């Protein structure tokens, strides 16, 4: 999900802030080992998320005595981070949403291999897939601290009640419920097609369930082409929804003009136009801030439906902590972020999910978040990271280009699967060669 961008002036101002972590391990006057040392962290979080993360950092200070400065970079984080690295003023720690960027930084020698203690914590507290996501050339560089469950469909309890529907467990039942809703005069699903990233999430969930985790991994690495029959099958399945203008609010034209927040409001606002919206757990935040609906009562969710008897699986996003300086205070902060102790601080504040299975589910702030966290952890190694975030940004993360644009074109004409796969492969081939 796109985050609020900080202004260029703010980024420039923040860019001059540098960490000054001292090398001494002599306890300060308060008796804490890291007193007098300072660590700088760059992260994507602004607003309420920033305030909550700063409470996590305050807990680290209380424990160790180290000062922590937080630099919010919003959507500009990759650019800000790379500029700081190239300019010789890297932060101590950065929270990065793109494993591809972490791999790039690792190959350039800009991020450090984590300590054995951090690696032990990651192994102990997370499913193996999360360790694998932070491992490049056999060495672990990152700790996944905050995650998003991107395999959820949110629905209006009122709309489902009007047709006597239960949350569907299969794709067939999902379409069946949608058609029943259409008969009441509402659309089935609101699609935020103006934001191309939402369409990548749709595709990834369908592909994971039709092609399986092994093919998902291959496609993410471009080891199989986007013209592969497995891609065609996934797009044809997705076309069963996108190709029925009655099911999609506003049809393809309307969906392509709908941004993500509006797609949520279309379901839970004062004048609802659809019964369901697909997206990650952060839908709840939009519901709370932009509608009068109550999450867990008026607004509920179900797992992305199984397709062809597929096993439960979760497409996830998230932010990986990486270490750019090699000193005691930085290493101790990485250990803290890898521990359940840090995640428990934010979990109790709300708006947080973690792949850390050692965080008690009761620590999460509400029933909805507890269920989302449980699904993420229970999926174990059937979790797959957001494929577009694994891809080169030119293909998987550029507005109006690459995968985003190709899937928008597919939404406009879902019957032409051949044109879609050819466009996707052409764009992927160019991006992966760079």
From TrEMBL:
Keywords: Lipoprotein, Signal, Transport
Superkingdom of the organism of origin: Bacteria
Name of this protein: ABC-type transporter, substrate-binding lipoprotein
UniProt similarity note: Belongs to the bacterial solute-binding protein 1 family.
PROSITE patterns the record matches: PROKAR_LIPOPROTEIN
Signal peptide: 1-21
Keyword Lipoprotein applies: yes
Record InterPro entries: Bact_solute-bd_prot1 (IPR050490), SBP (IPR006059)
UniProt organism field: Saccharothrix espanaensis (strain ATCC 51144 / DSM 44229 / JCM 9112 / NBRC 15066 / NRRL 15764)
Any Pfam family hit: SBP_bac_8
């Amino acid at each position: 999900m796109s985050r609020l961008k900080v202004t260029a002036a703010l980024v420039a101002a923040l860019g001059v802030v540098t960490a000054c972590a001292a090398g001494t391990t002599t306890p300060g006057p308060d008796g804490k080992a890291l007193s007098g040392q300072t660590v700088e962290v760059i992260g994507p979080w602004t607003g309420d998320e920033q305030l909550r993360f700063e409470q996590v950092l305050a807990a680290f200070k209380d424990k160790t005595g180290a000062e922590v400065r937080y630099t919010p970079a919003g959507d500009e984080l990759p650019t800000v981070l790379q500029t700081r690295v190239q300019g010789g003023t890297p932060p101590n720690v950065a929270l990065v949403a793109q494993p591809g960027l972490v791999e790039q930084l690792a190959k350039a020698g800009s991020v450090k291999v984590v300590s054995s203690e951090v690696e032990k914590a990651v192994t102990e507290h997370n499913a193996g897939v999360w360790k694998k996501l932070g491992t490049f050339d056999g060495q672990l560089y990152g700790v996944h601290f905050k995650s998003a469950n991107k395999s959820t469909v949110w629905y209006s309890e009122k709309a489902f009640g009007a047709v006597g529907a239960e949350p569907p467990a299969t794709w067939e039942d999902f379409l069946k419920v949608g058609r029943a809703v259409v008969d009441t005069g509402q659309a089935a699903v609101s699609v935020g097609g103006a934001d191309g990233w939402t369409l990548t999430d749709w595709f990834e969930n369908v592909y994971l369930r039709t092609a399986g985790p092994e093919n998902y991994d291959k496609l993410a690495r471009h080891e199989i082409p986007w013209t592969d029959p497995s891609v065609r099958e996934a797009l044809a399945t997705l076309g069963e929804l996108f190709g029925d203008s009655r099911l999609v609010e506003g049809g393809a034209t309307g969906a392509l003009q709908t941004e993500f927040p509006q797609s949520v409001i279309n379901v839970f606002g004062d004048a609802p136009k659809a019964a369901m919206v697909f997206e990650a757990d952060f839908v709840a935040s939009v519901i709370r801030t932009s509608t009068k609906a109550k999450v867990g009562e008026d607004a509920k969710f179900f797992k992305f439906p199984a397709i062809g008897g597929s096993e439960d699986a979760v497409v996830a996003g998230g932010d990986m902590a990486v270490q750019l300086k090699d000193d005691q205070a930085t290493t101790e902060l990485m250990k803290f972020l890898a521990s359940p102790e840090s995640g428990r601080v934010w979990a109790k504040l709300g708006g947080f999910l973690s792949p850390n299975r050692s965080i008690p589910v009761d620590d999460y702030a509400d029933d909805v978040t507890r269920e989302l966290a449980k699904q993420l952890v229970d999926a174990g190694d059937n979790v797959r990271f957001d494929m577009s975030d694994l891809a080169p940004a030119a293909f998987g993360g550029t507005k109006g280009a690459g995968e985003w644009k190709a899937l928008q074109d597919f939404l406009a004409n879902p019957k032409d699967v051949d044109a879609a796969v050819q466009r996707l492969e052409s764009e992927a081939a160019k991006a992966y060669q760079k």
